[in-house]
Every structure is written in C-alpha cells, then in structure tokens.
Fold:
Amino acid sequence: MICRSARGKAELIRVVRTPDGAVQLDPTGRVNGRGAYICRDGDCLARVGGRSGLGHALRTDVPAELGAALVALGAAPNPTMTTSEVS
Structure:
C-alpha cells in the first residue's frame, strides 16, 4: 500500500497485473496475476500516478487511464468499485 497503514481487506482496492501484462482493477480479489492494494483514501489514490509504489509493486508502469480511474474513485463521496470500471 502506498500509505503503509494497516486496514481491512474490504477497505482496499486491488490492482492486478495479469500474466499477459495488462494492469486492471480487481473488484473480486480473485483475478490471476501480481496484485497490489491501495486504500480508498483520496490522498493515496491521488498519488498513484507518476513515480508511485504501485508501479513498483506491480513491476510495470501504471497506465494513465487506470491512474485517472483511481483518482476518480477517490473524488467520489463514497468510493466504491464496480465491475464496469475494470479495464
């Protein structure tokens, strides 16, 4: 996690790099691949772009579209993730 605070799994968003190299949101927590968690706090979601720990944890670059989707989740009054937001 970017903020390195302890939180329950339900309070986190999972991002996964699939075996074919795609980076996407994982609302189920069951997508096969290398995963990393981000808390739903707006500050943590805003820090995803650029040189973040997320890209380092996934061992790949985070696509700008995914970063923008995560920032939008943080800007929502009650950030939740739906399957329609998964890339």
In short: The CA atoms of residues 1 and 38 lie 5 Å apart.
